[in-house]
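Incident log, structure service

09:12 report received: a user says their structure output differs between two submissions of the same chain.
09:20 pulled the input from the user's history:
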Amino acid sequence: MSKSKGTRVERELIYMFYDTGLWMAFRAAGSGSIHLPCPDLIAGNGKRVLAIECKAVGKGSRYLDEQQIKELLEFSRKFGAEPWIGIRYDNLKWFFLNPENLGKSKKGTSFISLEVAQKNGLKFDELIGLFKQKKLY
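09:34 re-ran on a clean worker, output below:
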């Protein structure tokens, strides 16, 4: 993902949280550029805190750096936040996956495909607790 595309989708997500009227979010300064655990976004509503690593994908699968996942989990544990991977496919809405629900390749590498996102992921309204969609598969 290009840096400008990543910044664009992160900002889109910040506005989505703000537009709920109940949530606030911000981009973590230095995420991806410092050698400390730091998610892309932190969001909260006074009851829940979410640490979100954002990914943008045109199509196909996105393989994830295992170190980045470990750092998201470490940050979340120490900060008291829920760890989430947010993925935005071009021309589709956001999907959010708990790191435990990522796909695994035969070599053990974590990945997100559209199929995995649709099966295991939550839509934005589900993530923030507005409703829960029943999965048919």
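09:41 both user submissions now match this output. Likely a transient worker issue. Closing.
09:42 reviewer note: The chain has one domain: 3-127. The chain has four helices and eight strands.
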